[in-house]
Amino acid sequence: MKEPLLQVDGLKKHFVSQKGFRKSSKQVVKAVDGVSFDINPGETFGLVGESGCGKSTTGRMIMQMLEATEGTITFDGERLDQLSGKALKKARKDFQMIFQDPYASLNPRMTVRDIIAEPLIVHEMETSNGIDRRVYELLDTVGLPRKVAERYPHEFSGGQRQRIGIARALAVKPKLIIADEPVSALDVSIQSQVLNLLKDLQDEFDLTYLFIAHDLSVVDFISDRIGVMYLGKLVEIGDRDSIIQNPQHPYTKALLSAVPVPDPRAKRERIVLEGDLPSPSNPPSGCPFHTRCPFAWDRCVNETPELQTAETTGHTAACHLLDEL
Ligand code: SF4
After folding, report:
1. Are strands 78-79 and 70-75 parallel, antiparallel or unpaired?
2. Is 321 touching ligand 1 by the criterion CB < 6 Å?
3. Residue 266's pLDDT band (cuts 50, 70, 90)
4. Per-residue pLDDT band at 264 (split at 50, 70, 90)
């Protein structure tokens, strides 16, 4: 059996801020609160949940853009959270990020050529003679004409900008790509083009993806396995088919009920969640979902459910009514 390419174990990010006017009074925001998952080589792991659930913070900790409060991140057998300086720079070549807003993540004063060439220069991967050839090769790969190399980001549509961002991420031949809401800013018709491009690139370059999104239909389309996050915790995790066809957690059921069904004759009962996502600075007692769960009962208020394997499906979920709903 292959070793996972990425192992995240007990990852936490707690932000401490001052509460009110008194310096001594602090509040702790548990943005990510004990998340564990593995991603195997060549796999796409989709991390899904509402905005503010901690999925992007998880991605940023893996990218080493944010320091974890607790937990370990092992990438290709190496503890990323223990690296710094040159060792971290060397490791960074193997994991790259694609951002939600391709415009904000591309320097408006740089040409497309310079944007794509930058990581090649930082990681000393090409001679100056080889850079143009590699930039053209990457433009071909993402389906953009070579003549765009001398143009600037503002001259492109959202979908084209995202292709430039993908070319930049691919430049250093990474093993893992963390895609943080890469299609949520795009029109639906363009979304499918970019998702299909990501799938084709995965086959061509043997890439592994951590795909972060709030839209379960997008995650369903691209993922091999799915993790559902709620209020900083993973509440369900398993194979894509198992999660989509047989969700165990009421939160996953609610997310799934909002996904349109292609066949209008096939009806899916819509579960409307009451209320907003509670604040991670003051999470509910017991099950974090109990304030919005239509099935909540006394035990849910007092006891936090652990992730357990459901007998009916073989995947894991954190709910006191596992296998019963
Ligand atoms: Fe709902 Fe209770 Fe299950 Fe939490 S543990 S998801 S509140 S039924």
Report:
1. antiparallel
2. yes
3. low
4. low
- The CB of 293 under 6 Å from ligand 1? The reply is yes
Three-state SS sequence of 83-123: CCHHHHHHHHCCEEEECCCCCCCCCCCCCHHHHHHHHHHHC
Q: Is the pTM of this model over 0.85?
A: yes
Q: Which atom of ligand 1 is nearest to the CA of 287?
A: 4
- Which ranges constitute the DSSP H helices of the chain? 55-62, 85-92, 112-122, 128-141, 158-170, 188-205, 216-222, 240-245, 250-257, 298-302
> How far apart (Å, rounded) are the C-alpha atoms in residues 61 and 32?
10
The structural domains of the chain, ordered by start, are 6-94+174-317 (3.40.50.300)
Whether 173 and 131 have beta carbons less than 8 Å apart is answered as no
Q: How far is the CA of 276 from the centre of ligand 1 (A)?
A: 16
Neighbours of 288 (CB within 10 A): 26
43 touches 225 (CB < 8 A): yes
Ligand 1 center–CA 31 separation, angstroms: 20
How many Å apart are CA 215 and CA 220, to the nearest integer?
A: 9
**Residue 21 pLDDT > 70, yes or no?**
no
If phi > 0 it is left, if psi is from -120 to 50 it is alpha, else beta; for residue 143 that is left
Summarised one tens digit per residue, pLDDT across range 148-164 is 999 999 999 999 999 99
> Closest by alpha carbon to 214, among 259, 245, 177?
259
* CB of residue 233 inside a 6 A radius of ligand 1: no
Task: Convert 126-136 to b/e letters by CB count within 10 Å (16 or more is b).
Answer: beeeebeebbe
Amino acid at 195: L
Cβ–ligand 1 distance for 289 under 6 Å, the answer yes
Q: How far apart are CA 118 and CA 131, in angstroms?
A: 10
How far is ligand 1, taken at its centre, from the CA of residue 232, in Å? 16
* pLDDT digit string, tens, across residues 193-248: 999 999 999 999 999 999 999 999 999 999 999 999 999 999 999 999 999 999 99
